[in-house]
Amino acid sequence: MKNNQTTIKDIARKLNLHHATVSRALRDHYGVSPQTKEKVNALAKELDYNPNSIAQSLKNQKTKTIGVVVPKISHDFFSTVISGIEDVTYKADYSIMVCQSSEDYEREVLNTYNLASNRIAGLLVSIAQNTKNTQHFGSLLHQGVPIVFFDRVCDNIDVSKVVVDDYCGAYKAVEHLILKGYKRIAHLAGPKHLTICRNRLEGYLSALKKYCVPFDEDLVVYGEFDRGSGIAGMKKLLQLSDPPDAIFAINDHVAVGAIMHAKENGLKIPDNIAFVGFGDDIISTVVDPPLTTVAQNQYEIGKTAAELLLDQIENGQDTIVPISKTLKTELIIRLST
Amino acid sequence: MKNNQTTIKDIARKLNLHHATVSRALRDHYGVSPQTKEKVNALAKELDYNPNSIAQSLKNQKTKTIGVVVPKISHDFFSTVISGIEDVTYKADYSIMVCQSSEDYEREVLNTYNLASNRIAGLLVSIAQNTKNTQHFGSLLHQGVPIVFFDRVCDNIDVSKVVVDDYCGAYKAVEHLILKGYKRIAHLAGPKHLTICRNRLEGYLSALKKYCVPFDEDLVVYGEFDRGSGIAGMKKLLQLSDPPDAIFAINDHVAVGAIMHAKENGLKIPDNIAFVGFGDDIISTVVDPPLTTVAQNQYEIGKTAAELLLDQIENGQDTIVPISKTLKTELIIRLST
DNA sequence: GCTTTTAACGCACACGTGTGCAAGAGGTGG
DNA sequence: CCACCTCTTGCACACGTGTGCGTTAAAAGC
Hints:
The structure is a homodimer. In chain A, helix 5 (76-91) runs parallel beside helix 13. The N and C termini of chain A lie far apart (63 Å). In chain A, helix 9 links the parallel strand 6 and strand 7 (220-222). Chain A is α/β, with parallel strands linked by helices. The first copy, chain A, has three domains: 1-51, lambda repressor-like DNA-binding domains (434 Repressor (Amino-terminal Domain)); 53-162 and 299-327, Response regulator (Rossmann fold, 3-Layer(aba) Sandwich), CATH 3.40.50; 166-296, Rossmann fold (3-Layer(aba) Sandwich), CATH 3.40.50.2300. The first copy, chain A, contains 13 helices and twelve strands. The structure holds a DNA duplex.
C-alpha cells in the first residue's frame, strides 16, 4: 500500500517499451504510433498514472507553485485576499503554498527562504508588522524570483505592488465625518512605520486641514490591528478632558472594539459619538449599529496581485517594469455616522 | 538576473571539488575534512545557497508538503482551521499547499489529483457540499497518501477524522432553549447529506424528544451555510400560521441572517424570539444582541487534524489505525436567548 | 535487387541531490 | 621497504521526466 504511485517507467516495463516512448506517447508526440499511444494511455488510466510534478519541475527548472506570505491566515482580510489569489492561480494551473508570519519578522524570513528552497515561481507578500529589514526579499529577487507585494508593502523595493488608495479612503472617511458636523475627530492609528498606516494618517490630517479643523495630537492614538487595540485606544480617548465626538479607526476590528467600549460607557451611536472603520469586513455589517467604513475589496486585491505576478512569470523575461496598482476605495455609509 | 539559484555543483566547481563532497560537507558528514567543510560552508553562505527541495524530494521519494482542500478559504471557520494547520506544520518543517473547492465537486477532484501530482506527503480535507462520490480520495489512499478529514468528513472512508461533537452541541443548544421556556423551536438546517448537518439535526430532535416537546416538521427548514440562507429560512418560518419563538441555526452566519430578518420585522430578541448559532465565529460577538452559540474551537480542529496526519506520515508505517477525534463543544450563552 | 526515405522506437544524458563503494594520498608499524 | 590502515575525495548511479540523436526495420522508389 506504500508508494504505489505509478511512473512512466512502470508503464514502460509492462508494455515492453522504453520510458522515453511512454513519455512521448503521453504528450501526444508525433513520432509515436497511434497504436502505441492508445496502449499507453489505456494502461496509464488503468494504473491511475499521475505525472510526478516534482520530477517535471526538476527537469524543466521551474515549478507551477506560487508562494504566499501573510501575517495571519485567519484574518478576514487576508483570507479573502488568499481566496482571490487561489481563484486566479487555479485557473492558470498553478498551486499556492501559504505561510503565515504571525506578525513575526524572523518567521517571515524563514518562510521566505523555505519557499525559495521549494523553488516557487513567484512570491506574493504582505509583510509583518515589525519587518524593517528586507534583505530576505532582496535575496529572492537576486535569485530571479519575482515578487509582488500587496497591502503592506516594502517601499524600498522596486517591484510590482497592489495597494488600495489608503490616503484617499481615509480622506473621504474623515471628510464625511466633518460634513456630518462632527467637531473633534480622533484617529485610532496602526503601527507607525507601516506605509498603509502612514497613508491613512496622512489622509486624516489632510481632510482636517482642508476643512480647517484644528489638529489635536492627543486625538491620535497608535495601536495595532485587533479589537483589543480598539478598546484600549477608546479607553484612552474617553479619559481626555475634552473627548472626541467621532472616531476614524485604522480598520473595522479596531472600530468594533472602540464601539463596544463606547457602548459600555453608555454612549449613543451616532448621537454622542460616530465611528468609521476601514476594510468593509463582514463584521461591519453585523455590528450594531452597522459601521460606516471604507470598502477596499480584498478579493480584488488578491486577484490583481496574482495576475500581475503570473504575467511577470510567464511573459516578463527581461523587461521587468514594476507596476504599482492602486485600487479604488469606496465609502460605505451606514448607521454609525 | 534569471535563474541565479546556486547549486552544490556551482560550489563544487568554484572549489575544484566533486559535488558529492560538497553535499557531504553541507550535511556535516564525518568523512569530510574540517577545512573543506569550512570552505564549503563559507562559499555557500556567500552565494546564498538554498538547497533545492525539489531535487531532494525527488531523491528521497517524499516531500515535506501537506495538501489542504477546503470549500472556501475566506470563510472564518476554514481560515482559522488553516491557521491552526499552518502553525503545526510550520513547527514540523512542512509546508502547506492550500486549495479551495468553492463547493464544487469537480474542482475538489481536480485539486486532489493536482496535489497528488505534487506528491504531497498527506492530505487534509473538508469536503464540498455536493461531494458524494469519493473515488478521488480512494485513489490517493491507494497510492499511499494518508488523508485526514475534518469537519465535513466522508463516512464511507476509513481514515482518521477530526470533528466536533455536533450531536451533543446541538442537543445542548436546544436543551438550553427548552429550559429557557421557549416552546416552538425551529431549526435552520444545512444540506441534508452532510454528516455534520445530520448530526446537528439529530441533536435537535433528540433534545425535543427528551423534554417531550412535540416535533413539527414545518419547523425544520433546509438551506446552506450563508447569511442568505438564514434570511430565506427565517422568511419561510415567519409565514407559518404558528411561527416559532426560538431558532437553532446550523451556523452563526445563518443565525445572523435570521436575526437580521427578524429585527427588520420588528421582533424583539430575546423577548419575542430567541436565537442560537453554531461555531462561535467572530460575528457572534459582534451581532446585536450577542449570539448564544455552540463554540467549537476551529483552531484546535486544524491543529489536531495536522497532528494526526503528521504522526501518521512520520511514524505510521504500516499499522494505520484510523483515529477519530471528536472535540468537545461548549455552549456559550449570550444575550440572544 | 539495391538504395533511399520514412516511421517507430531505444539510447544516453540532463536537471540537483544523496550515498555506497572505490581510489588515491599520506602516515604508521614491523 | 613493504604491507596495512586511515583520512579524504572522486566516481557512478539513482530518483522521474523530457529530448536530441542514433538505430533499426519496413516501405517506397528506381
